[in-house]
Write a structure and sequence with these properties.
Rossmann fold, 2 domains, 5-stranded parallel beta sheet, 46% helix
Length: 317
């Protein structure tokens, strides 16, 4: 049987040591680790994992507009405070503490975007939950009762209108920023498999319309197609049959790495990774002559590499 191969257009190339920001589903967190291992300066999901395009857009709007008093939509449950705009990993023990935390994250992420060369946005689902009392979409239900929310699937034009505005603001505010969309290959089984297919199709259509509308500034990496067509086997998934395992993530990274980096950059990144791996190596006999010679040689090689390639993110340890 012939294997289906996805053609990836090399429409953008990432430079060594580029500053990268990532927002969206858990798949973006997987790629953030790969980018860090490749020596990039990376900021990933400062507001926690967020799945739907409306919630991601809302946060970016706060970042872009520099609103000093944003409506952070804070809610309490028992002794904890959450925001309807963020994941449950963003919490505090008082309303003011959470306000200060979120305002600081918004401010810091703006500073990050000012330095970023690329913003990766990963959509997970077009199904959203609307807080009935406030009539707005929430990024996370924070384990509140289901009857407080209305589940909705927004139409193509509604998502387009929101993201056309978001991208226009982003590009105006951060002129050097390139935006790369990905569609998470993780199926949202809780929505229903047919409903998940409707959602993914809607998001995919939206992404490609935005790519055409903002030609040269907006790109797409076909992670979804790679999984659906090249990795058609549950061997590439965790036990839940939904989330990708390390083998699948490694495969997607290799396809990305071979497409969106030049030969020279790949060579330098692989050498960087080799040096960092050696730096983190645990010797069998610490303090021995052999260990000392190894460390001295590595220190010399690493010093030389840093002098030639100062743009990598050199993390200690």
């Amino acid at each position: 049987m012939q294997k289906t191969i996805v053609t990836l257009p090399p429409d953008f190339k990432i430079e060594k040591g580029a500053h990268l920001s990532l927002l969206g589903s858990c798949f973006s967190s997987n790629f953030a680790k790969k980018f860090q291992q490749a020596g990039h300066f990376v900021q990933s999901n400062p507001f926690g994992v967020i799945f739907d395009p409306f919630s991601i857009s809302q946060l970016l709007e706060f970042v872009v507009t520099k609103n000093s008093s944003p409506d952070l939509r804070i809610i309490s449950r028992e002794d904890l405070y959450f925001s309807w705009l963020a994941n449950s990993t963003c919490y505090a023990f008082s309303e003011q503490e959470l306000k200060d935390l979120l305002k600081n994250q918004i401010y810091e992420f703006r500073q990050v975007l000012e330095k970023s060369d690329y913003l990766f946005v990963t959509f997970g689902t077009a199904w959203v939950y609307e807080w009935i009392e406030g009539s707005f979409v929430v990024a996370n239900c924070h384990k509140f009762p289901n009857n407080l929310f209305e589940k909705k699937l927004f139409c193509f034009q509604e998502i387009m209108d929101v993201w056309q505005n978001t991208l226009t603001q982003l590009i105006r505010e951060f002129p050097k920023l390139q935006i790369v969309f990905t569609l998470s290959p993780v199926r949202h089984k809780k929505d229903g498999l047919i409903e998940n297919s409707r959602s993914k199709a809607l998001l995919l259509n939206t992404i490609h319309h935005l790519k055409e509308m903002f030609r040269g500034k907006v790109h797409y990496f076909a992670s979804y197609e790679l999984v659906m067509d090249e990795l058609r086997d549950y061997a590439y998934f965790n036990k839940d049959g939904l989330h990708l395992n390390d083998i699948a993530v490694d495969y997607l990274w290799e396809r990305f790495f071979s497409t969106h980096y030049s030969d020279e950059n790949r060579k330098d990144i692989l050498r960087y990774q080799q040096l960092i791996k050696s730096q983190r190596h645990s010797p069998l006999h610490p303090g021995s002559l052999q260990d000392k010679l190894f460390r001295d040689k590595l220190e010399t090689e690493l010093k030389h590499f840093k002098e030639v390639h100062p743009y990598f993110c050199y993390l200690e340890g």
